[in-house]
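Severity: low
Component: inverse-folding endpoint
Summary: output formatting inconsistent between runs
Steps to reproduce: submit the following structure tokens with default settings.
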């Protein structure tokens, strides 16, 4: 399967973990989407619950890519603000306030790069554990 397809499925599930699901076929690598709040064009296969054929795509919390990733970034990149970041994540709306802090400190781009790399690594590790074959990224056409 293409990494971009897995990433899109991961982002779908992470955007609303209580409502959205995605499943990868272990046979074809195709992604099947589901939502409890919106009508989607395709229906899930009847055998979607068969773990030998399909695997549910994890969300960012399943892969420890939420609060814990932000705290790891703060510890590595913003040691002087670690406690501030920890306090931010004790309240609702933390991610927005975290990004505001990063913007003020000029670290927002570094955070996005850190998050992107950690997400790819975690998804590739998860895929390997599940026996999925995830293609390497194709070169981007610069033209």
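Observed output (run 2 of 3):
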């Amino acid at each position: 399967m293409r990494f971009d397809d897995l990433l899109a499925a991961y982002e779908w599930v992470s955007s609303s973990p209580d409502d959205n699901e995605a499943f990868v076929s272990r046979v074809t690598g195709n992604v099947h989407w589901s939502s409890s709040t919106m009508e989607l064009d395709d229906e899930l296969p009847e055998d979607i619950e068969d773990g030998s054929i399909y695997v549910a795509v994890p969300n960012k919390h399943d892969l420890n890519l939420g609060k814990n990733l932000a705290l790891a970034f703060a510890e590595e990149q913003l040691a002087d603000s670690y406690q501030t970041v920890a306090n931010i994540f004790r309240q609702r709306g933390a991610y927005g306030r975290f990004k505001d802090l990063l913007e003020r400190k000029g670290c927002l781009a570094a955070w996005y790069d850190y998050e992107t790399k950690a997400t790819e690594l975690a998804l590739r590790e998860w895929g390997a554990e599940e026996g999925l074959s995830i293609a390497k990224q194709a070169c981007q056409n610069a033209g």
